[in-house]
């Protein structure tokens, strides 16, 4: 059965790319789209930044036709600001609006935004209702199990947010107190899915980093789809590998070194096109180690890549990597 958010048909058991700050920008989304992700989100955008017309926040509204379906994710602590930001983001013409009630980092949560709303469900509900009323687009939410082990209130959150009109809910299987430590616990996510009152799609997020885990958790926790974040960084192939495993029960061979180089080169090119030469080259530096994780003796190349500023020379270094490692099979490379 197809999973639908409003009139967006995501097919059978969609794989979603998580919104990740400083990661899921258009260049990164491009390589993930090439690997078969079913839906993506922008990096989270500050509602205050949008209202103040801050350049960084505005730039994050950039979306492209080939990315669809795509959601714009916003966060904030003030209801009126979130309402205004929703109106601004709606003009960028995404397919849906998403609210971040899950970000655990201090400068978000300690300012009353992100996961901190898990401490004030009444305010969270009012904020969500304001966002739903401010746009004609479907509204979805991403959140966590609760603030800490003593306050896992996701069941109440799910019911009340559905009541004010959200059309899908993604749950990260950790509390805010856990940050990204320990293991994600999906058992509460399954409880939400089994709740007869819940009619909207429920997506699970947290720790899915292999086709087997995706297949096992799909059955065990009964979710409608899976959102993947950190496992896709430097490894966009995770989406096609999971889909292939779902369809065939067999493992797809991992990417060859040539494929890694090709994806990395594309990412670099898109980064330069979107951000300009200087920033595009600089911001790409955080990705090289991830693309070539597990390659033996790669460190000298990584050092060259993170120091080089000349675009032509960067392409030459990447071509040299492809040539040097061309006979290494994917099985010899450590997979995430």
What does this structure look like?
With 336 residues, this protein is α/β, with parallel strands linked by helices. The chain folds into two domains: 4-248, Aldolase class I (TIM Barrel, Alpha-Beta Barrel); 257-332, Non-ribosomal Peptide Synthetase Peptidyl Carrier Protein, Chain A, CATH 1.10.1200. 42% of the residues lie in helices and 12% in strands. Strands 3, 4, 5, 6, 7, 8, 9, 10 and 11 form a nine-stranded parallel beta sheet that branches. Helix 8 links the parallel strand 9 (168-172) and strand 10. The longest helix has 19 residues, at 257-275. The protein starts with a strand and ends in a 12-residue tail after the last helix.
The average pLDDT is 92
Could you tell me the CATH topology label of the largest domain. TIM Barrel
Overall number of structural domains: 2
The helix fraction, in percent, is: 40-55%
Ends apart, CA distance between termini: 30 Å
CATH superfamily of the largest domain: Aldolase class I
Number of helices: 15
Largest sheet: 9 strands, parallel
Summarize the helices and strands and which ones pair or pack:
Blueprint: E1 4-5, E2 8-9, E3 15-17, H1 26-34, E4 40-41, E5 45-46, H2 47-51, H3 55-59, E6 70-75, H4 79-90, E7 96-101, H5 106-109, H6 121-133, E8 139-144, H7 154-163, E9 168-172, H8 187-194, E10 202-205, H9 211-221, E11 225-228, H10 238-248, H11 257-275, H12 277-284, H13 288-291, H14 299-307, H15 311-324
Parallel strand pairs: 3-11, 4-6, 5-6, 6-7, 7-8, 8-9, 9-10, 10-11
Antiparallel strand pairs: 1-2
């Amino acid at each position: 059965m197809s999973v639908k958010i409003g009139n967006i048909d995501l097919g059978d058991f969609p794989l979603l790319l998580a919104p990740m700050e400083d990661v899921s920008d258009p260049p990164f989304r491009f390589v993930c789209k090439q690997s078969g992700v079913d839906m993506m989100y922008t990096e989270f955008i500050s509602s205050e930044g949008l209202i103040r017309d801050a350049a960084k926040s505005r730039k994050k509204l950039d979306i492209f036709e080939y990315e669809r379906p795509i959601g714009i994710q916003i966060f904030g602590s003030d209801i009126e600001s979130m309402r205004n930001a929703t109106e601004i983001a709606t003009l960028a013409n995404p397919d849906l609006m998403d609210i971040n009630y899950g970000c655990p980092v201090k400068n978000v949560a300690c300012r009353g935004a992100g996961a901190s709303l898990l401490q004030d469900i009444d305010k969270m509900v009012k904020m969500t209702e304001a966002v739903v009323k401010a746009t004609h687009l479907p509204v979805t939410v991403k959140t966590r199990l609760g603030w800490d082990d003593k306050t896992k209130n996701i069941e109440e959150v799910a019911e009340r947010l559905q009541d004010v009109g959200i059309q899908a809910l993604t749950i990260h299987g950790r509390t805010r107190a856990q940050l990204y430590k320990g293991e994600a616990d999906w058992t509460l996510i399954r409880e939400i899915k089994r709740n007869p009152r819940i009619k909207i799609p429920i997506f699970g997020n947290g720790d899915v980093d292999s086709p087997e885990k995706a297949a096992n958790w799909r059955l065990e926790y009964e979710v409608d789809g899976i959102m993947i974040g950190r496992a896709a960084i430097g490894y966009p192939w995770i989406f096609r590998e999971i889909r292939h495993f779902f369809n065939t029960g067999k493992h797809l061979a991992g990417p060859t070194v040539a494929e890694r180089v090709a994806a990395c080169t594309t990412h670099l090119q898109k980064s330069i096109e979107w951000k300009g030469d200087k920033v595009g080259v600089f911001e790409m530096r955080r990705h090289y180690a991830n693309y070539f994780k597990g390659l033996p003796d790669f460190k000298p190349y990584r050092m060259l890549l993170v120091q080089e500023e000349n675009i032509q020379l960067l392409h030459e270094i990447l071509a040299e990597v492809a040539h040097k490692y061309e006979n290494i099979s994917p099985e010899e490379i450590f997979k995430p």
